[in-house]
Structures are given as structure tokens and as C-alpha cells.
Amino acid sequence: MKRHFLIALLVSVIFIFVLFSNSTYAQTPAKGKEKEKLGIAFLGDLTGPLGFWNAPRLVGIQDAAEYLNKQYGGIGKREIFVDWADTKSKIDIATSGYERLKANKYLVWHTCGTGEQQMLKPRYEEDKSQVIYTCSTSPGVIYPPGYVFGTAAYYPDEWGLFFDWLVENWDFKKMGRGPKVAILTYSSGYGKALITDELFAYAKKKGVEIVDTIYVPFVVVDAATPLLKAKKAGADWCIGQWIYQSVPPFLIENQKLDLGLKFAVNTFGVDDVIISMAKEASIGLTGITNWTMLWEDTAGMRIIRETLEKKFRRPEDRGASYVLGWMNTWQTKMVVEQTLKRVGKWEKVTPAELRRTSESWGKVDINGLGVMFYGPNQRGATESKIVQVQKVKAGDKEEMRWVPVTDWRKVPRLVPPDWEKALAY
Amino acid sequence: MATRPAGVYDVTYQQDIAVVRTLPQWISLFIFLCFLAVFPILFPNRYLLNLVNTILIFIISAYGLNILTGYAGQISVGHAAFMGVGAYACATFMTSLKLSFWISLPLSGITAGLVGILFGFPSLRLKGFYLAMTTIAAQFIITSFFLHFYKPEVLGGIKFASGVTLKPIQLGSITFNTQENLYYLIMPCTVIMAFFARNLVRSRLGRAFVAIRDNDLAAEIMGISLFHYKLKAFFIGCFFAGISGAIYIAFMRIIRPDQYTLMDSIWILGILIIGGLGSHLGPIFGVIFVKLLDEVALLFAPALGKMLPADLSSRIGASMGLVIFGIVVVLFLIIEPRGIAHRWEILKGRFRHWPFTYG
């Protein structure tokens, strides 16, 4: 009995010690004691339903940080390190993670998860304690414009572009009607981020009929039922806010059942991992993106490809989220170093100054990994490309890859008017 | 197992059922309440206050399940959904009907209670695992209702298809938008609900619940109407869940269907088992233990991640936190299957009998 009591007491003491010593890895140690470091915070779901997307992203951030430390001595000559908090896609855990990371005063954060970001947005804007590069270009996250910057177009905007492309390539004469689209998407905040009044009105204006909205889980066990539902509703296309894991079962089932449905994904679905999982069934899969494809020959992509080979990264790590991790880290380097140059010393590098720098970028190429568009009231890309999985000749062999089918095109602006005005610094 | 302080004995029924019976206990209670009142001043740490606020909200919910499952013996695996009912009801009252939060709060508790009665009807015919299955059905029916039928247009605030963001709660000139202010909203509610729960179980109603839990046939023979009391248990249990759900949206200022999952319901039940089913302090101990353990696991994960290569740190590092969480819970249940509250009683008994070893 006594032994058990002592064990319980010991466990409790360890608890309390670990809990209240969370500020042990602060961003800037006391001067003269050791070299000053710069921390990058990552707040996203690592062990919940979005874990399979964010785990490779965190690998990307860590690889990029290691590269920058080695090649450039970090950012602004300060060695960088990555601290992270797992949200498990739960808002109570996300708030706790936010408060913990905030206590460490990291200037730049990378975040993910629409639901948690929507909930944290008021805190971000009230606290003004960091600049955030998020993959959640969702309603109520990047707009109204404040301290949160998106790494793709606002979701309704990019789907608006898809509708533009769809009607341009639709044979109205032959079909005798406009295209019919079924939304197959997650029931999460991310999945539902495209369902806005503005996008639905835009679809109507363009002659695109949205025939059904079908919710699907992150891990698809039964792909046939949603597809048959979409087919029954008369859909030509199935569109959705997906990430790589969920798409291949639908593509494969569609091919197996010979349903003839076509599929489109947003920026985060434009992922090479889908091709490696769905193989031939992925041909024709369409996407909207402002990022560079992994095969393209740019400075940033060359570094990524070399790193992937050198570090023997696993196939599931060789995708869009890994690239995003690198892109966000390059963005961090750019924003911190440009701000440092402008304000003169580290003490003056504040979240407000970092926001000013980001807003001054306009159209900016992130080291060949993607093109961002930021301004005083612009937080998502204003231009994107339509890409498709196609079989192409690469040297002497044929391979499947994402290929741009359009040049850069302006996305329609479907941000609600009351979200246009920038929030206070 | 409860022992009395040396020299304290009861001569009346009132003394027997008294919660606080000696002057030192009254002083301790007063000091504890004073400590709660000045907690944000003593610990002005946002991270800590955020954690404490979350714990306090879940304590209310756990009390509800403790009444329903711990005292009345009606297993519910849909408690998180009833929290959701309270949350959605409160948001509807506040935005569509333009009622103040202070009126919406009890109304959302009552709404959740009424929905609880609806799903409590099967308890008249079913027991144990079978009843658990019907409450799982309640979990899915309620969350599906929020997902598919409850359109954000019903509510005001900032609307997304995925949910609604609400304005901070106000009381006169006080806006509950900081952790400190929210603490003074949440803490009194928790204290009141804990007081209510404590008194409920020593009333006729509470004794009837215990009788039904221990042997429903015997209880019926003694004149306890199973029909009424089981439904009352569902109403009260879900009322607590509704109140906690309503406070939760005042705290988070967002309402979304995917925050009230089956997993959450199972964990609230787990919290009770860890804390001690059917004991007054069980919900408090359970919630504190599980939430702190969760926090430690989340803190431990990045620290472990730093020791591992990048590709392992985001997977094994993050997952190890969960593994440790699971291991500690399993070990704890092996060491103390009757919950922390039982261990607390043993500890109290030891102090009361000190320096003697018996008791």
C-alpha cells in the first residue's frame, strides 16, 4: 500500500514538474550565456484525423530548419529550432497548445486545421503576438485580414476559378445543359470551408449546378456509396476539400464501377502521393494550385529533391505537405530577414513589423516553391493554375505527374464584403 | 470507507447527513473558496488559467454523468452529445431569440435535460450494455442532427458552414473575453453545480438513485417508481451536460458539431472511472488527473521529438505522448481500480488515525 502511494506521489510530482517547466525552452536565452536562437512554432493536428497530413509537414519544417542552419547559419544569423504543439483537431487541446506556445514568444508560427484556426482567430487578432502562415485558407481564418496569412487562395476563390475553367471547357451544345457538380467533402471545418453563400451564388452565375453535398470521412472505408449517391444526383464532377489519403479510394472505386465521374481537388489535394497510391486511376484528376510541382526545376525544388534522397524520406513524406513545410520555413526566413533589414535590430522585430513586411510583398515567389500574394487586405493567392494528372514522357520513360493545363489565372474574389477591411495592427 | 475525525460522532440524522461537520472543516472550506476566488491573482498565467477553465467546465459535465451513471447506474456513452445540445441550445437562444446568456444558460440545461429524457425512455426496458448501445445511438443521432439539419443560418454571429463564432459574453460592463474574466464566470458555475450535485445525492432523490443502481427490483418493491426516477436521473445528468456545454461555448466562442464526438463521450466515462464512480470527489479528481495527464503527454511529445530524427519526431514523438497517456491510465487502474476518490479516502483515514496504523 505504502509503495503504491509513493509511486502515485512520484508520478504526481513528475507531472507537476513537467507541466510547470514548459517554458524551459524559451526563444531567446539570456545574453552572454549561449548563442541566441530563433524558434518557429508549429500548431497543428499530429495524432488526430489530420495527422497523416501534418506529420510530413512537420518533417518538412524540420528538414528546412536543418538546411537553413547549415547553409545560412539559420535566419538572420540566428540558429533556428522548431517547437510544436499537437491539437488532435480538438479545440480545447488547441487552445491549450496555443497558450503554451504563446508563452514562449515565438514570432512566426505555422498552423493547420480550419476548425481550430477559426476558434483561435479572435485570440490571434487580440493578442497580436505572432505572425501566422497557415494552410487553412478558410472563411474566418485568413479574412478579415489580420495576423494570419494563407499559403493558397481563399478556398471559395480557388473553387470559383475551377468553375471558370469548367464552364470554359464544357460543351454546352453537346450536353444541352451546364455541368453538374457534387460536393464530396469532410464534415470538418476544413471540409466545409468551401460551402459559402458567395461560392454557391458564383456557381449559379456561371451555370454550374451543385447537385448534392455528401460528407465523407477522412479515412474512406466505403467509397462506393458516396460515389453512387453523387451519380444518382446526376453529377458529372465530384469536388472536395480533400487531402491525399482520402482521394485514391474514390478514384479507384470510380474506375472499378465504371461510373465515369471526374474529380477535382483544391491546393492541398494536388499531391504526388495520390498518384503513387491510385496509379492509373488518378489520370484526369484535376486540381487548383499556386504551388510548384515536385518535378519542376526550381531552386527550392532541387533542394527538396536532394534532401528527400539524402535522408531516405518515406513515400508518404514526399508530398504536398512536406513541400509546404519547406515553403513556410522559407517564408519565415524571408519575412524575418527583410524585417530585420528594415528595422535595424532584433529588438525591433515585432509581430506588427513582420505583418507589415508580409503585406508589402504583393506577388512573391517563395524560392521557387510557390507564388504567394499578400497585401494590406490580401491574405490568399489572387492567381492560381489548373493542373491535371497526366501521363507524360520524362526522358526515355513515361510517367504520371501533375501537369498545368492553364497558365496563371486570376481567381474570382468571393470574400464577403464585411471581411474586406483589415483588422487593426 | 469514509471515516470520521476522532471524537466526532452523530446523534441526529441532520448530523449524519451533514457535508461539513466540524469547525476545522468549515475553516478549510472557507480557505479553499478564498483560494478559488483569488486564484487568477495568485497565478496570473494565461496558459494555466486556460487549463483550469477547461478543467472546471469538464467537472460540471462529469458531475452530470456521475449522477446518471455513478449514482443511478444508468450507463451513458452519449454524454458529449448532450453537452452539444446545451451548446447549440444556448447559441440558438442567444442569437435567434436574442436572450441574454444568463437566461440562456439555465434554458440550455433544461433543453439538454429534456432531450436526455427522450433518450432515457429505453432505460425503462434496457440495462447495462444494451442501454449503453442506445446512448451511443443518441450520440450519433444528435451529432448528425447538428451536422446535417442544423444550418448555421439559424444562428447569428460570424457564420461558417462548419460552425458559428459567437461574441464574448457580457455582464454589465464586464466582457468575458480574457481567461481571468472567464474564470470568474466558470468557477462560480462549477462551485454551484458541485454544491447542487453534492446535496442532490444525500436527498430522497439521490437515495432513490442509489437504490435503483444497487438493485432496481428491490427499489421498485420499496415503492420507488423506476419510470419516474430513471427519467429524472437522465434529466438531471443531461441538465449538467447542457450547462457545461453552454459554458463551453462562452469559453470557446465557437460552436461546431465535430467537437462532441463519441470519443469525447467515452473519455468522460473514463474520467469518472479513473476519478471514482459514484463518489462526490470522483468527477473533480478524474477531470484534473486526465486533463493534467493529457497536458503532460502533449508537453512531453515535443521534448521527446527533439531527441529523435525529424521523420520520427513528428510521428513517434507525437504518438509517444498518447502511448504514455494510455500506459499511465492503465497502470493507475491496476493500482487503484476504485478510483482516485477511494485513494483520497484512504489517505484522509490515515491522517485521521495517525500515529496509529489501524483504520
Written account of the structure:
The complex is a heterodimer of chains A (425) and B (359). Chain A is an alpha/beta fold and 425 residues long. Chain A has helices at 2-20, 51-72, 91-103, 114-127, 155-168, 172-175, 197-206, 224-232, 247-257, 272-278, 299-310, 320-343, 351-359, and strands at residues 37-44, 79-86, 108-111, 131-134, 148-150, 180-186, 209-216, 237-240, 262-265, 286-289, 362-365, 371-374, 383-394, 397-404, 409-410. The longest helix of chain A is centred in the last third of the chain and has 24 residues, at 320-343. Chain A is globular, with a radius of gyration of 22 Å. In chain B, the strands form two sheets. A three-stranded antiparallel beta sheet of chain B has the order 1-2-5. With 359 residues, chain B is mainly α. Chain B is built from 14 helices and five strands. Chain B starts with 12 loop residues before the first helix and ends in a 6-residue tail after the last helix. Chain B folds into two domains: 45-261, no CATH class; 281-359, no CATH class. The radius of gyration of chain B is 21 Å and the shape is globular. Classes of the chains: A alpha/beta (425), B mainly alpha (359). Chains A and B meet through helix 1, helix 2, strand 2, helix 3 and helix 4 of A and helix 3, helix 12, helix 13 and helix 14 of B.
Keywords:
heterodimer; A: 425 residues; alpha/beta; Rossmann fold; eight-stranded mixed beta sheet; five-stranded parallel beta sheet; 40% helix; 20% strand; globular; B: 359 residues; mainly alpha; 2 domains; three-stranded antiparallel beta sheet; two-stranded antiparallel ribbon; 14 helices
Write the layout of secondary structure elements.
The complex is a heterodimer of chains A (425) and B (359).
Chain A: H1 2-20, E1 37-44, H2 51-72, E2 79-86, H3 91-103, E3 108-111, H4 114-127, E4 131-134, E5 148-150, H5 155-168, H6 172-175, E6 180-186, H7 197-206, E7 209-216, H8 224-232, E8 237-240, H9 247-257, E9 262-265, H10 272-278, E10 286-289, H11 299-310, H12 320-343, H13 351-359, E11 362-365, E12 371-374, E13 383-394, E14 397-404, E15 409-410
Parallel strand pairs in A: 1-2, 1-3, 3-4, 4-5, 6-7, 6-8, 8-9, 9-10
Antiparallel strand pairs in A: 10-13, 11-12, 13-14, 13-15
Helix pairs in contact in A: 2-12, 3-4, 5-7, 9-10, 12-13
Chain B: H1 13-17, H2 23-42, H3 46-71, H4 79-95, H5 101-120, H6 128-149, E1 158-160, E2 163-165, E3 169-171, E4 174-176, H7 179-200, H8 204-214, H9 216-221, H10 226-252, E5 254-255, H11 262-275, H12 282-307, H13 310-335, H14 340-353
Antiparallel strand pairs in B: 1-2, 2-5, 3-4
Helix pairs in contact in B: 3-7, 3-8, 3-10, 3-11, 3-12, 4-5, 4-6, 4-10, 5-10, 7-10, 8-10, 11-12, 12-13
